[in-house]
Amino acid sequence: MGYPERQDSLPDFSTPLVHEDELPSHGDTVSTGSLPDVERVTTLIEAAHRRYRDLDEGKVADYIPSLGAADPALFGISVCGVAGLTTSVGDAQHRFSIQSVSKVFVFALVCHELGHANVSRLVGVNNTGLPFNSVMAVELADGDPRNPLVNAGALTTTGLVPGTTSAAKWKFIQDGLSRFAGHPLELDIDVYESEAATNQRNMAIARLLQSYGRMDFDPIKITDVYTKQCSLLVSAEDLAVMAATLGNGGVNPITRETVIDPSVCRDTLAVMATSGLYEFSGDWLFEVGMPAKSGVSGGIITVAPGKGGLGTFSPRLDPAGNSVRGQRAARFLSGALGLDIFASKPFEAEAAVH
Ligand code: DON
């Protein structure tokens, strides 16, 4: 997939997320306050898997050479509720490199350390409207990285991670993401080496940020730590637990460990809502109505605040770098499970207690 070539082009909106044939309107399925019981969730994720498993739209990313080897048929869906019940279907245990989904969790950990006002000032929280690896976005903004979910903002965020050495920063990130997942996350050495050999654009973005005074740490070392964070191995099940931790005020629903403060969860979800699916973030919010984040290996996390998290994995991507089947499954489940945070029904006076 030729992301570097199209990095400064205008968004290509030729692939609508939802085709008109598909689904009931969200007005029929309002948010209920809690997830349905686990049997119902299982029935619905199985239905989502059946519905989209034969969909073969999109392309596997290969601008990081080792990602091009992914089996495009893989498709896993997992849901974890805030009470700790998890249910999965398909290839939900298959491990893949987390890629850009890591940006959310590194941002959350840095936000926890530095606070709301500082991350807003130092990183930013607005959508660039440009592809994730855009150099032009940095130039147009006079060096402002704009938000932590594009590469410029993610490199800035990794630069803000506590620690005076690369090793200390890397340990902070690996430990922190492992706490979100509830078990130690390992590095995929092949993916790391493959990206490290081809990440000249990210090194250039980090240097550009340094030239604007936005990068205090060595930009090449920060790019290396960022490349490692993107190479951590996760499954769709891990993503569901990590997403559910963000949907549960920062407490991992499986281990019950407090990973970040509730206010940091709230800030992180707000940024995901503006920018989680890059140039298609507006389409996503319009169709799915939940904060989310995608990565080029095919993972997506989707968060239902107060209810739980959805993790999906399917390697074929749309033109912005978002998993096609993952988006469709999330759209289906948002409606079917009543998760859309924007959906409501009119107040019925006679049914009300007060
Ligand atoms: O920096 C990169 O290009 C990758 N490590 C991550 C990009 C990514 O996942 C963008 N997602 N859609």
Protein model, in words:
The chain has 354 residues and is of the alpha+beta class. The chain has 2 domains: 20-100 and 234-345, Beta-lactamase (3-Layer(aba) Sandwich); 101-230, Beta-lactamase (3-Layer(aba) Sandwich), CATH 3.40.710.10. It contains 13 helices and 9 strands. Strand 6 and strand 7 (299-304) form a beta hairpin. The longest helix is centred in the middle third of the chain and has 16 residues, at 166-181. Residues 1-16 have low confidence and may be disordered. It binds 6-diazenyl-5-OXO-L-norleucine (DON).
In one word, what is the shape?
A: globular
CATH class division of the largest domain = Alpha Beta
The number of distinct β-strands equals 9
Biggest sheet descriptor: 5 strands, antiparallel
Mean pLDDT: 91
Give me the secondary-structure topology.
Layout: H1 38-52, E1 59-60, E2 76-81, E3 86-90, E4 96-97, H2 101-114, H3 116-122, H4 136-140, H5 151-160, H6 166-181, H7 189-196, H8 200-211, H9 219-230, E5 233-234, H10 236-246, H11 262-275, H12 281-287, E6 292-294, E7 299-304, E8 308-313, E9 316-317, H13 324-336
Antiparallel strand pairs: 1-9, 2-3, 2-8, 4-5, 6-7, 7-8
The protein binds 6-diazenyl-5-OXO-L-norleucine.
The site of 6-diazenyl-5-OXO-L-norleucine has 12 residues, from loops.
